[in-house]
Amino acid sequence: MLGQAVRRFTTSAVRSSHYSEGPGQNLPFSVQNKWRLLGMMVVFFGSGFAFPFIVVRHQLLKK
């Protein structure tokens, strides 16, 4: 009884969604242009990697 209700809800929720299907369609960024994606990934991961070094430099130069 409960399983049928859950199944009915999930199938109706999937049916009523308006998102297109396919690889990369459910991501919050575009994967169509590989060079733009590469640039965005370098900035994102590079900033996270550089942040501790910038903080240490700031603390060492602080008087």
From TrEMBL:
Residues 1-24 are annotated as: Disordered. Pathway: Energy metabolism; oxidative phosphorylation. It is a single-pass membrane protein. One of its GO terms (biological process) is mitochondrial electron transport, cytochrome c to oxygen. It is found in: Mitochondrion inner membrane. Residues 9-19 have a biased composition (Polar residues). Keywords: Membrane, Mitochondrion, Mitochondrion inner membrane, Transit peptide, Transmembrane, Transmembrane helix. GO terms for cellular component: mitochondrial inner membrane; respiratory chain complex IV. The keyword Mitochondrion applies. SUPFAM superfamilies: Mitochondrial cytochrome c oxidase subunit VIIc (aka VIIIa). InterPro entries: COX7C/Cox8, COX7C/Cox8_sf. It comes from the Eukaryota. Pfam families: COX7C (PF02935). Its main location: mitochondrion. The chain crosses the membrane at residues 37-56. Component of the cytochrome c oxidase (complex IV, CIV), a multisubunit enzyme composed of 14 subunits. The complex is composed of a catalytic core of 3 subunits, encoded in the mitochondrial DNA, and 11 supernumerary subunits, which are encoded in the nuclear genome. Belongs to the cytochrome c oxidase VIIc family. Component of the cytochrome c oxidase, the last enzyme in the mitochondrial electron transport chain which drives oxidative phosphorylation. The respiratory chain contains 3 multisubunit complexes succinate dehydrogenase (complex II, CII), ubiquinol-cytochrome c oxidoreductase (cytochrome b-c1 complex, complex III, CIII) and cytochrome c oxidase (complex IV, CIV), that cooperate to transfer electrons derived from NADH and succinate to molecular oxygen, creating an electrochemical gradient over the inner membrane that drives transmembrane transport and the ATP synthase. This is Cytochrome c oxidase subunit 7C, mitochondrial. The lineage of its organism: Eukaryota, Metazoa, Chordata, Craniata, Vertebrata.
